[in-house]
Design a protein that fits this description.
PmbA/TldD fold; 5-stranded mixed β-barrel; 447 residues; alpha+beta; 6-stranded antiparallel sheet
């Protein structure tokens, strides 16, 4: 791929277009306005059985404009970086605002909360990888999976992704801020066995800095090991046992918490955790803290999608929910203040103990390790939880066989309150960072 630094638009040009949008909005009667620009470019190469499956160059640009006329709001977008396109978007947003209902919760985030001198979080690391090099790296990854074990009879391919982006935001408070970022990845899906006995599994690595990625061959070998370990999987009977969520799926469990305490769910009265701020919902040793300024981390950001400065902030302390996850609109609807979470959480870290995954398995003694979840059986209104699962059965503190075609069920409130331990095997591939989570007891239903 050619040097991305020469292909992303200059910050000065974006600032000029954002200023144009804001000035035009004022001229059309807007009492406040904001404009956000995003530009993405990248390369993805996917191979299967050594042949190129897909090879794509990506490039996207989008300018979104939102205007406020009192409590009336209108939004429109422009796909081109030209003055005419920007003015057309502003005109469309103003026309929409004139026909929308007045909502006193609408408006920009408070001026005093805007980011000032955002820190450099070292998020932008171009990967100078040509298309040919990306294809060869994907082939190397897939070959390592096939060579890792004779039982790997096929693959669903391997891929390499290269991405750079630029996000710019400005509003009529006088703010203009730019966030350049990159993320790169390597993945592989391996298939073990044959016929009805086939099992598939995968592994991937992702990082902002390509130097921090796992080696392509290591990714392939891990995918193969995961797939082979699932051979011979069978269902179970039905009983209540401890369940250990392996770190990659444990992130989803914490994600359900974030969704349940997000402002949109709360003001719509669509969460079983409404009114829970200040209440203990986890054991008293559980801690969760957002750390948005970790250099090179995937969830880092100096400001949220509304330009609000981010900072370290506890979500759970001593097992007690300290706050909700709010943008400015939901905060006003709830009579609260924004928590700088427009766009989501930033590096939400779950504090962990000293046990790694093997230590948690020994501690569990007997029960189910969940490595994969299927289905959408999570009701945030009631807290009811029921999902298809696969993983491994544990007896006497050791894995004895792989498991598939089971359902795990419970209530999220009971699951949270029954957490026994969080492992040191932290998965940092995303905005939620947690180790494996051991829960006291859930219903496991199979045949």
């Amino acid at each position: 791929m050619s040097d991305p630094r020469n292909e992303l638009p200059a910050a000065e040009e974006l600032e000029r277009l954002v200023a144009l949008a804001l000035d035009d909005a004022r001229g059309r009667g807007a009492t406040a306005a904001e404009a956000a620009f995003s530009s993405d470019l990248g390369l993805s190469a996917n191979v299967r059985k050594g042949d190129i499956d897909t090879l794509e160059h990506h490039r996207g640009r989008d300018l979104g404009v939102t205007v406020y006329m009192g409590g009336c709001k209108g939004s429109a977008s422009a796909g081109a970086l030209s003055e005419a396109a920007v003015r057309d978007a502003v005109r469309a947003a103003c026309d929409i605002a004139r026909y929308t209902s007045d909502d006193p919760a609408n408006g920009l985030a408070p001026a005093e909360r805007m980011v000032q001198d955002p820190p450099d979080l070292d998020l932008d690391h171009p990967w100078q990888l040509s298309a040919d090099e990306a294809v060869e790296l994907a082939r190397e990854c897939e070959a390592a999976a096939v060579e890792a074990d004779a039982r790997i009879e096929n693959t669903e391919g391997a891929g390499v992704g290269v991405h750079r982006g630029l996000y710019a935001y400005g509003n009529t408070h006088g703010l203009f801020a730019v966030l350049p970022e990159s993320h790169h990845s390597i993945h592989c899906v391996a298939v073990a066995g044959h016929g009805e006995a086939m099992q598939r599994d995968y592994h991937y690595t992702v990082a902002r800095d390509p130097a921090a990625l796992e080696a392509a061959r290591a990714v392939g070998r891990q995918a193969a090991e995961h797939a082979v370990a699932r051979l011979g999987a069978a269902s179970l009977g039905t009983e209540r046992v401890p369940v250990l969520f392996q770190a990659p799926v444990a992130k989803g469990l914490i994600g359900h918490l974030v969704s349940a305490v997000s402002g949109s769910a709360l003001y719509r009265e669509a969460s079983f955790l409404a009114g829970s701020a200040g209440r203990q919902i986890f054991p008293d040793w559980v801690q969760m803290v957002e750390r948005p300024h970790i250099p090179r981390a995937l969830g880092s950001a100096a400001f949220d999608a509304e330009g609000v400065a981010t900072a370290d902030a506890a979500l759970v302390e001593g097992g007690v929910l300290q706050r909700y996850v709010l943008d400015s609109y939901s905060a006003r609807r709830l009579g609260l203040a924004t928590t700088a979470n427009a766009g989501g959480v930033h590096n939400l870290e779950v504090a962990h103990g000293s046990d790694d995954l093997d230590g948690l398995i020994r501690r569990m003694g007997r029960g189910l390790i969940v490595t994969e979840l299927m289905g959408q059986g999570v009701n945030l209104v009631t807290g009811d939880y029921s999902r298809g699962a696969a993983g491994f059965w544990v007896e006497d503190g050791a894995i004895v066989r792989p498991v598939q075609e089971v359902t795990i069920a419970g209530h999220l409130g009971d699951i949270f309150a029954g957490i026994q331990a969080v492992g040191s095997d932290v998965d940092r591939r995303g905005g939620i960072r947690t180790g494996s989570i051991l829960t006291a007891e859930m219903t496991v239903a199979g045949q």
